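FAQ: What does a multi-protein file look like?

Like this. Sequence, then tokens, then the next protein.
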Amino acid sequence: MLKIKAPAKINLFLEIGKRENSLHPLFSLVDIVSFYDYIYLKPSKKTEIKFISKWEIPKDNTVSKLIFILKKIFNFEVEVIVKKNIPPGTGLGGGSSDAGNLLLVLNETFNFGLRMDEMVNIAKEIGSDVPLFLYRKRCIIYNYGEKVIPCDDFKLYYLILIPNFSISTKDVYDKLDKIGEYGDLTDCDLKVRILIEEIKKGNIYMVEKKIFNRLENICFEIEKKVREVKDEVEKITNRKFFVSGSGGVLFSVFKEKEEVESIEKRISLDNWKKLVVESINFCM
């Protein structure tokens, strides 16, 4: 069987606008990192999708949605096995990555002949985070997630803290709509360009100052433990920690691997998993 790596993502910047036609416009800087689901596939006489996961995966998931869409266009049968390592409902984009990376490989394996813009159109039907995984490197995404601009690759290291609970993305966005605290998307391009320049310089102090997530406080309201752990680890490490996506994963950013490994050893948390990861660029 063919083996595919489906990496996680971290949002270094995430601004959200007011809901329009059931969708929220957004502007985000997303890094792709070295934490993976693994997907195995092979042509088959009958299409089957299986998950190896300690978390419950709904029947209507990103992989099944992708296969359903593709089978309306192409005649093919495939066996897919997804080994889940990226916990659902944590802001790491595991489900979106599974669909995006599987689409890339299916297009090549079965010679669908889809252009990138055609794959993006398919991906955006599944979810706003799916198109970014077609580019497999750090990128800016905007509008409803279908507009993607790949960025220059300057390696960063991260310490991520993964809770043993999930947070519903729908619940987070519903609460955002209830509160109505949307962001102004007009100046996001400038803010993200400044953040990218600080990443290039390796100025982690300024990178921390420019990291932003519109959904962070809402995540804290829904699950107070995330805020408590953030405060605790910031006090222990004297480093800033941030929420990725709709949460509840926390991350801190570093320039050097030795530094992140040193900080990791100082943290001991019940029911939270510690993981050191780094930026990756599959296009290299």
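And here is the next protein:
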Amino acid sequence: MKPLVALLIALASFQSLSAADFSTDTIPTITFQVLNAETKEPISMAHAINVSRGKGTITDMLGYFQIPITSGDSLKVTAIGYFEMVSPQWGPFSTDTLFYTIHLNPRIYELEGVRFSRFSSYQRFLKEFAALKLAKDKNAETENLVAKYFAKTIRDMAMMNLPSGTSGISFGKDWYARQKEKLEEQLEKERKADVIRKKFNEVIVNELTGLTGISANIFMAYCDFSETFLYESNDYSIRIRIVEKWEAYKQEKVNTKPDFSPIVKPKKKKKDIKVEVSVQQGVAKY
């Protein structure tokens, strides 16, 4: 009796295993497409899992994926930025259908307020701020340039050419201070001249009037703008003045027409020669 029972149990186990293998091999592979429920746009990189059979995959750039699934299997689809979709018993499916559509609803993540702080305390802020290296402004750059210039000049100079020192109390600025002021004045003049050249030049005159070469230079001299006006005014104001001067310049050229009438030389008047005879002195006077 016992051998018969054992044989029946073994036979039942073999049949169940064979049925399981057969069912796994015969599960159809179905194609799905995951879309945004609001915009109907495909969702890429979404995760699809057949929970019942432990099979998973991800969607392609067009939202498609293929997975083995049959009626009664649980399908779970998740994607970042969307609510997950779980179907406990999906199906039935038909292999004749091109693909099935799955819609996911967009999800907004609410995050708690985050506070960023570089300094853990006020004392650390003061310490790091005091050690902070700020960018130099134009005045600091000018002073640095002047200092380098004088340092190089002094190294290259012969000591005998230096101004002789004086004993006692000295009044006024020394030689180095005066040279520094002269250099700073020259640098300031060059800077202003450069600003003026950028605001008023032949290129700008050509754009507004069409003049080139000598004609442009003559018109620029005709404008006779002061350096103060060119330096302190903006580009728009200067261009307006150039156009006004150009209209006046053209009007003057129209009104001033050349006179081609022949030049008549005035006739010279003949001087009357008077002769006076002095009898007494015997001298003729003209």
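Q: Is there any per-entry metadata?
A: Some entries carry free-text notes. For the entry above: The two ends are 187 Å apart (CA to CA).
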